[in-house]
Amino acid sequence: MPHRCDGSFRSGGIVKQNLFPFHLAFPVHDITVARHFYGEVMGLPQGRSSDTWTDFDLFGHQIVVHLKPGMLRDGSSNHENPVDGKDVPVPHFGVVLDMTEHEALANRLRSKGVKFVIEPYVRFHGQVGEQATMFFLDPSGNALEFKAFADPTNLFAT
């Protein structure tokens, strides 16, 4: 069993209590546009910032958008892999939410006019790993996936 810094252990399933947040920093083509998208469109609380970067609270995890001058904003550096008959953008990042949070985020994004790369749907229906998922791009072309499992203990099930 992997030992965690907070003294807890993982023994199958997922650990929700005392889970340490991850940190992810990634490039954006325009810091003002990124602040609007992550703060206003997605509704994420903003943390520290400067002229070239901004922290956001992504469901308890820290993401940092960093200005990359000259960056193309079309996601052209992304690749796609087939999963469940859909072309999944790679690379991508996101958070596993509960079903209620997943639905609320999908509704918020729809209400803000976000275009989905893969519309919210349930994949692997009736199988181990059944999950709701959705994919979309930020204004700089970074791909995000948010998912929720019918049975959260199946997050790492094979």
Would you kindly provide a written description of the structure presented here, covering whatever features stand out?
Helix content is 15%, strand content 36%. A hairpin with a 5-residue loop joins β9 (131-137) and β10 (143-149). It is α+β, with helices and mostly antiparallel strands and 158 residues long. The strands form three sheets. The protein has a four-stranded mixed β-sheet with strand order 1-4-3-2, with helices on one face. Strands 7-10-9-8 form a four-stranded mixed β-sheet, covered by helices on one side. Strands 5-6 form a two-stranded antiparallel sheet. It has helices at 31-41, 99-111, and strands at residues 23-28, 46-49, 53-58, 61-67, 79-83, 86-90, 92-93, 116-123, 131-137, 143-149. It has two helices and ten strands, in the order βαββββββαβββ.
Summarize the SSE layout with pairings:
Elements: E1 23-28, H1 31-41, E2 46-49, E3 53-58, E4 61-67, E5 79-83, E6 86-90, E7 92-93, H2 99-111, E8 116-123, E9 131-137, E10 143-149
Parallel strand pairs: 1-4, 7-10
Antiparallel strand pairs: 2-3, 3-4, 5-6, 8-9, 9-10
Quick structural summary:
The protein has helices at 31-41, 99-111; strands at 23-28, 46-49, 53-58, 61-67, 79-83, 86-90, 92-93, 116-123, 131-137, 143-149. With 158 residues, it is an alpha+beta fold.
Shape: globular
Strand content: 35-45%
The computed structural class is alpha+beta
- In total, the number of strands is 10
Helical stretch tally:
2
Regarding quaternary structure, what we see is single chain
Mean pLDDT metric? 87
Distance between the termini: 17 Å
Q: Which consecutive residue ranges, at least 5 long each, have pLDDT under 50?
A: 1-13
The percentage helix is 10-25%
Strand order of the largest sheet: 1-4-3-2
H and E order? EHEEEEEEHEEE
Radius of gyration over alpha carbons?
16 Å
